[in-house]
């Protein structure tokens, strides 16, 4: 039987997703100097709600003000900000859609702008343009504190009016780092075997479920693989997904990579040393992780979302009816076209406009002797900055500026990050 993109999907908890579109999490950077949500969050998510996407997942809401993914993150620590969260939740569910809060801790991927001593499972430093400090290995007390914070934030999310939560266990952040044998070198009960490395995630899921109840959507964003030798493998991912199904998770969103191997940022194809390699047919289908999802589907029965590369309506319908997935994840296309889902559903659009190829900087622009690492960094960070600028425009109820130059966007983004971090440090000194 053919499945339409407009078809609802019932989750194990009993909640129905209105359609098969999901806005995947994208960091917004819109919080105020006290790390609280703002009216810009409400404006942004009202636009996405009215755009027809059935399920919206927020950018990562941080559980600890000491450790941010970037300046401008919303932090939820039970010390205020509920009024702002309620406004955000009300605006983001305007059209009767689902709005799930993504709950996160950056682990070692906490930039020096916000913390020079991040916290992680082990002292494995992220060497990326000198932007990250050497992490401190978490003590047992640190682990218990973080687990309590994940559950506490989930409870606050439900109280504020969000209709679900997602635990961020991908992309090298704290939970993902616990899963990785390359990043988790602990010799205690939280490291070693896959079961021990998955203990933090499964405990976070269990505590979160107790905090929100059995009738509330609980999702996990999980790497299909880290795409690094010695990292979290696809076989690991399948086993962890089985455990998540047994633990009562309602939906798994498949992604992949981390800051050192950022396949989730790469719109041109797989990383050079990714394994297993993608088949040519997968590349033609546009969705980077479809092969992984298809294999995972043979092992687990809970709903699966795949995010990464979907642009064409026909490709989305084909993937859905191949039953490799249940939900189509979109991220960047909804930044430049916030009403894309509705237009695809009503038949007035065949898919997203592709901007990524125009955001790549040619090496010749910097001369034949230009540093290859710097060149790669520009082509990884430049498009991110370009989309960050578009998110800001949407949050101010303005139209995207799709003709903005990528280098101009990167310079503006860096200046904004420095200003946000500086202003935040001033507030923290005053509060202390």
Description:
Helix 1 (39-50) crosses helix 13 and helix 3 (140-160) runs parallel beside helix 6 (199-212). The longest helix has 26 residues, at 406-431. This protein starts with 8 loop residues before the first strand and ends with a helix. The chain has a single domain, classed as Alpha-Beta Barrel (TIM Barrel), CATH 3.20.20.70. It has 14 helices and 13 strands. Strand 5, helix 2 (82-92) and strand 6 form a beta-alpha-beta unit. The protein has helices at residues 39-50, 82-92, 140-160, 174-179, 194-197, 199-212, 234-246, 280-285, 290-297, 313-321, 332-336, 340-345, 372-395, 406-431; strands at residues 9-10, 16-17, 21-23, 55-57, 61-62, 98-104, 119-120, 136-137, 164-169, 218-223, 251-255, 304-307, 327-330. By secondary structure, the chain is α/β, with parallel strands linked by helices. The chain has an 8-stranded parallel beta barrel, surrounded by 5 helices. Strands 1-2 form a two-stranded antiparallel ribbon.
Short summary:
The protein has 432 residues and is an alpha/beta fold. Helices cover 38% and strands 11% of the residues.
Strand and helix layout:
Layout: E1 9-10, E2 16-17, E3 21-23, H1 39-50, E4 55-57, E5 61-62, H2 82-92, E6 98-104, E7 119-120, E8 136-137, H3 140-160, E9 164-169, H4 174-179, H5 194-197, H6 199-212, E10 218-223, H7 234-246, E11 251-255, H8 280-285, H9 290-297, E12 304-307, H10 313-321, E13 327-330, H11 332-336, H12 340-345, H13 372-395, H14 406-431
């Amino acid at each position: 039987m053919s499945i339409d993109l407009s078809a609802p999907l019932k989750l194990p908890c009993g909640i129905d997703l209105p359609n098969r579109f999901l806005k995947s999490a994208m960091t917004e950077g819109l919080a105020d100097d006290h790390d609280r949500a703002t009216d810009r969050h409400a404006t942004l998510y009202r636009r996405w709600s009215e755009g027809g996407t059935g399920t919206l997942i927020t950018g990562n809401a941080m559980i600890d003000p000491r450790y941010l993914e970037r300046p401008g993150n919303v932090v939820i620590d039970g010390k205020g900000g509920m009024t702002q969260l309620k406004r955000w939740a009300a605006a983001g569910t305007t059209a009767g859609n689902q709005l799930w809060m993504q709950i996160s801790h950056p682990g070692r991927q906490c930039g020096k702008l916000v913390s020079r001593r991040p916290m992680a499972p082990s002292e494995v430093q992220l060497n990326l343009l000198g932007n990250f400090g050497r992490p401190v290995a978490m003590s047992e007390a640190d682990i218990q504190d973080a687990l309590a914070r994940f559950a506490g934030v989930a409870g606050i999310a439900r109280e504020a009016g969000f209709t679900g939560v997602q635990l961020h266990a991908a992309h090298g952040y704290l939970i993902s780092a616990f899963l990785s044998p390359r990043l988790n070198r602990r010799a205690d009960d939280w490291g070693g075997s896959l079961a021990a490395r998955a203990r933090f995630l499964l405990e976070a899921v269990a505590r979160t479920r107790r905090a929100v109840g059995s009738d509330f959507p609980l999702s996990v964003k999980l790497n299909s693989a880290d795409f690094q030798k010695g990292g979290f493998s696809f076989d690991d991912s399948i086993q962890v997904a089985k455990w998540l199904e047994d633990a009562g998770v309602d939906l798994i969103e498949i992604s992949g990579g981390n800051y050192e191997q950022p396949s989730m940022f790469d719109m041109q194809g797989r990383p050079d040393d990714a394994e297993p390699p993608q088949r040519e047919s997968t590349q033609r289908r546009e969705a980077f992780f479809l092969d992984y999802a298809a294999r995972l589907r043979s092992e687990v029965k809970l709903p699966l979302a795949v995010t990464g590369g979907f642009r064409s309506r026909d490709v989305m319908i084909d993937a859905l009816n191949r039953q490799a997935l249940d939900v189509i994840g979109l991220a960047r296309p909804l930044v430049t076209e916030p009403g894309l889902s509705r237009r695809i559903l009503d038949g007035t659009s065949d898919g997203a406009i592709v901007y990524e190829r125009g955001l790549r900087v040619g090496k010749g622009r910097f001369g034949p002797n230009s540093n290859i690492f710097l060149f790669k960094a520009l082509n990884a960070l430049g498009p991110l900055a370009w989309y960050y600028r578009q998110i800001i425009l949407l949050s101010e109820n303005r139209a995207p500026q799709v003709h903005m130059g990528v280098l101009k966007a990167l310079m503006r983004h860096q200046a904004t990050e420095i200003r946000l971090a500086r202003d935040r440090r001033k507030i923290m000194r005053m509060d202390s």
